[in-house]
């Protein structure tokens, strides 16, 4: 698949099949995430945690649901949640920037494999704030959850590509 086609196919998936993803596909997605550009090449400032334990996913979902109105599963039934954690960086915002690049690579790699993804900010905030959940992540010292990505097989197979369009305002100087 061409890179531009993969980008046009990428969508936020909000309904997943219950079955787990193939281990080989998971390893590929994690490897692609690790190829992301990272400020100053400080890859040791990032950590990935794969959450597939159904009970832990349920606990995360319940805590996120308590923090906002909605009614539906805030993890959208994804069988896998990738937690991208960062060490605090002296350059303000670098931790979020690096985590975003990792998430971007991860979702494009998953799209290439026919998997669905959705970047989720709120679960990372809950995992950082709730000590009992934070401990279950077994993170190395100094790391805090920064972003999460729901991952799994989409409930509906949608291979339609987005149309080329300029959706973000641009000015030229």
Short characterization:
This protein is α+β, with helices and mostly antiparallel strands and 173 residues long. Helix content is 38%, strand content 17%. α2 runs antiparallel to α4 (94-112) and α3 crosses α5.
CATH superfamily: NADH Oxidase
Largest sheet: 4 strands, antiparallel
Strand content: 15-25%
Number of E-state strands: 4
Number of domains: 1
The rounded Rg comes to 16 Å
> For the terminal residues, how far apart are their CA atoms?
35 Å
State the order of secondary-structure elements, H for helix, E for strand: HHEHEHEHHE
Global geometry = globular
CATH topology, by name, is NADH Oxidase
Task: Give a verbal description of the structure.
The protein has 173 residues and is α+β, with helices and mostly antiparallel strands. The chain has a single domain, classed as NADH Oxidase, CATH 3.40.109. The protein contains six helices and four strands. A four-stranded antiparallel β-sheet has the order 1-2-4-3. α2 runs antiparallel to α4 (94-112) and α3 (54-67) crosses α5 (122-129). The chain is globular, with a radius of gyration of 16 Å. It starts with a helix and ends in a 21-residue tail after the last strand.
């Amino acid at each position: 698949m061409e890179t531009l086609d993969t980008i046009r196919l990428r969508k936020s998936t909000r309904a997943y099949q219950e079955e787990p993803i193939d281990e080989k596909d998971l390893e590929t997605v994690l490897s692609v995430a690790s190829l992301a550009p990272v400020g100053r090449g400080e890859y040791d400032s990032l950590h990935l945690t794969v959450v597939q334990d159904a009970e832990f996913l349920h606990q995360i979902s319940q805590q996120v649901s308590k923090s906002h109105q909605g009614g539906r599963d805030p993890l959208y039934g994804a069988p896998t949640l990738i937690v991208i954690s960062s060490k605090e960086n002296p350059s303000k915002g670098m931790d979020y920037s690096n985590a975003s690049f990792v998430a971007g690579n991860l979702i494009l790699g998953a799209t290439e494999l026919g998997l669905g993804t959705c970047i989720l900010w709120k679960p990372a905030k809950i995992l950082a704030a709730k000590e009992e959940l934070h401990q279950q992540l077994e993170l190395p010292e100094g790391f805090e959850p920064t972003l999460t990505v729901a991952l799994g097989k989409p409930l509906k197979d949608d291979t339609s590509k987005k149309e080329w369009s300029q959706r973000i305002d641009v000015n030229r100087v």
